Amino acid sequence: MGITILEIAKKTGYSKSTVHRALTSSSRIDEKKRREVLRIADKYKYEPNLQARCLCGAKTKILGILIPDVGNPFYSKALKGIDEIAEDKGYHVLMFTSHLSWKREERIVHKLQNYGVEGLLISSMEGGIELVRALKNTGIPYVGFHQTDISDISFVHSGAEIGAFKMTEYLISLGHRRIGHVTIDQPSDLGIYRKAEGYKRALVKNGIEFDEKLIISRSKHYGFNNGYEATRELLRLENPPTAIFALCDRIAVGTARAIKDSGLKIPEDISLAGYDNEPFSEVIDPPLTTVSSSAYEIGKAAAELLIGNIENSIDEKRQIVIDPVLVVRDSCRKIK
Q1: Domain 62-152+296-320: homologous superfamily in CATH
Q2: Domain 160-292 has what CATH class?
Q3: Tell me: the pLDDT tens digits for 185-200?
Q4: Is the bond preceding residue 267 a cis peptide, omega within 30 degrees?
Q5: pTM of the model
C-alpha cells in the first residue's frame, strides 16, 4: 500500500494542508515545498483516494473512456496512447464498453458522472444526437475518437475510408480487378462502413464495376472464423477474386488459412491484404501487406485534446483526421 498524506506530512515536516495543496496543484504553496512533497510522494508511491476526493468536490483527475467493443483490435493500441498521455498529465482512466447499446451508453454516462470524471473520451455513439444531448446535460467535457461521426463535437479519427481506398487502389495498381472484401456484420460500426465505402470508391475511380458478391461477412465478430468462412465462400464463386482485402489483420489470418486449405498459395495464386498493422502481421508467412490505422496516435491526440480542454476550461470544437499509412510486405503480387 502507498504512503498517506499524514505520512508524507510527517516525513517532510509540513502540515497536512500544505501536503494536500502540493498534491492537488494548488497555487497557494511555495514551489520548494511542492517539489519536496512530490518527491516524497513519488518515492513512496502515493496514490490519491479518488472516492474521497469525489465526495468532497475536489478534482478527481479521472478520465472516462467509452468504447463499443474490446474485441476490435484498434482499441488496444488507442488505449495505450490514451493511457500514456493520461499518466503523463497525472490523470487516471476508467474504461467501459457499450456493446453497441444506446441504453447501456446512457447508463454508463450517468455512472461516470457519479464517479466525478473530469472528461470523457467516447467512441461508442449508438445514441447519436440523444447521447450528445445527454453528455451536454452532464457538463462533462468530452471528445469523440475513431468512430464518431457527429459534426457538433470534437473528434479524432483514423480516416478508415482513406485507408481502405489506398489499399484497394494499391491492389488495382498490381493489376487486380476482382478484389474481394471480407468484413463483419455490424451495421452501426462507422469504421466498417467507411472501409467499405473506401473500397467501393477506389473501384469506381478506376472504372471497375462493383460486384456485391465480392463483399462478404459471415459473423458479427472480429476474428479467425469469420475470415475463414467468408473466404471459403469467395473462393467458391464461379469467378473468384484474384485478391482479398480483409477488414482487419485478425480476419486476414482466417482468410490466409482458408486460401491454404483450398490448395492455393499466397501471393502466387491470390493476393491478400489486411488492416491495422498488428504486431503479428509482419511475422506470419508470408508477411502481410496491411494498413497502419495510427490507432496509438489517435488515442494520444484525443487524450491531449480532452485534457487541454479540461485544464484550460474551454470547449474547443476540433475535428482531427490522422491519415492511415500503407504498409507493403510480401502477401501481394503483380498480375498481368
Answers
A1: Response regulator (3.40.50.2300)
A2: alpha beta
A3: 876 677 788 899 999 9
A4: yes
A5: 0.74
